[in-house]
Amino acid sequence: MSELIKQFPGETYEEWVQWYNEQRPNAIDEATEKVYAMVKSIDNSISEIDKNMVRQWVEDLVLTKTFTGFYFQESILKAISENKRLEYRMATPQEESKGIDGFIGDIPVSIKPITYKTMSRLQENIEVRIIYYEKLKDGIRVEYDF
Q1: Alpha-carbon distance 92 to 89, whole Å?
Q2: Rounded Cα–Cα distance for residues 100 and 77 (Å)
């Protein structure tokens, strides 16, 4: 769409609607059909979600991901601090509420998966340095710049 709008010779919304419909006469109907099919698929899938499935998801989030995430963060902080020959510590609950996961020396840091970079719409406003990590088959890759 961004390439198409660059080709648009008009100036008003009304001109855009007319021009677009001339360029792509069936596009709105085709897109509507595709999106509606997805919505129906989601609607059908929702009826298959039961309480046990929700419980499994909640257990995974609360127990597994919290436990592994905490130790993952600590391992990353420890490795970087050893590399920089600085002390590290995990954040307090008050610091966590500000998006801080820990400190390397006196530098507050937040630790995020590499996929966080592509989720700009979901990002909170974190005003500390961010350490990105990527899980690999044989370990993790860490990215930071300080």
Answers
A1: 9
A2: 12
